[in-house]
Amino acid sequence: MSQKLISRSPDLKKLRDDGYEIEIRHGHLLIHSIPYVNAERKVQRGTLVSDLSLAGDRTVTPHTHVIFFQGEYPCSNEGVPLEQIRHASEKKNIAGDIAIDHSFSNKPSGGYANYYEKMTQYIKIISHPAKALDDNVDPRTFKPIETTSEESVFRYVDTASSRAGIQVVSDKVASQRIAIVGLGGTGSYVLDFVAKTPVREIHLFDGDDFQSHNAFRAPGAASLEDLCQRKMKVAYLADKYSRMHTRITAHPQMITKETVNDLQGFDYVFLCVDKGSCKKAVIDALATSDTVVIDAGMDVQLVDETLLGTCRVTTCTKTKNDHATSRISMSDNMEDAEYSSNIQIVELNALNACHAVIKWKQLSGFYQDLEHEHHLIYSTNCALLDASECDHVNKQI
């Protein structure tokens, strides 16, 4: 991806062809071996780091003029700090293994048209004092560029995280293996959200076909041709989302008591099914394991020709699962199941999936969690969000 991005982006290609040591890593552009003067009037070399704005496999106009720097604070040839570009000085990790010491701000009236303009402008400012002390120093080293073995689960660079400066937070889920059981309305939205994170693997379990009623409950817009192909849900959705995330595996089967061991070894299991016996099999099998089960359920009732909807997310961990039997219906009895026939509740599917995914991200350290609730209910008729079953062992007082 890195070399492809460079070759298809004229500004990056010009930087490389001019002899700069450029590298693409974790959604950022790095230029190494930039000469500068430190406070002791010694010539050192540092690295400039910029986030990347991309359209697919090509760069677009940089969204910010701010840039990062690895090294001591650059000074004039007299050892005086270059205060005119100072933005902030704080050592921090911004993405993966990329740590920076400072950030600079030098904004031209019209901004920077491309990354060649942006990077070379900062290089001139920083390197000019070094050149005054040693005429032989040059930021253009013409060092051969090695191909990197950095692998990404995405087919294109995640610039959303790097642009927002939350790459380090996003990486907290990168090692996880995720299973989604049930790819109906809620499960398909869970996939939509999870597929936009760098999790190591996503496994889909469902034994049904993708039909017309599913299209009205799932994210995106299925075409008539899609429906006529009569693909299974897991195959249809894996095909759609593999265009973005490369580690999605489809399992054309529903989890039963006989196949529940297929879920062993996952970090998180999203349980998005109506069938109580499936829920019971999964929760019983994983209760003592390190796998966290997040069950998303829904109840919709017809009252005076309006719908009353309740969305529920119940979380079961090794240390907190004693509430499962009282909070989750383990029955297969589906009396008066308006939810099974009503196709106009896609927003509840999406909302339920949101709550489930937020809970997962809280447990993963992505979001702050002060309540540590393991049972969350939202009711449409009174806009009530009720949290209970808190894990008092982990709750912050």
Automatic annotation (TrEMBL):
Domain of life per record: Bacteria
Domain DUF6791: 10-159
MF terms (GO), sorted A to Z: tRNA threonylcarbamoyladenosine dehydratase; ubiquitin-like modifier activating enzyme activity
Coiled coil regions, renumbered to chain: none
GO biological-process terms attached to the record: cyclic threonylcarbamoyladenosine biosynthetic process
Occurrences of domain THIF-type NAD/FAD binding fold (ranges): 171-298
NCBIfam families according to UniProt: PRK06153.1-3 (NF004804), PRK06153.1-4 (NF004805)
UniProt name for this protein: ThiF family protein
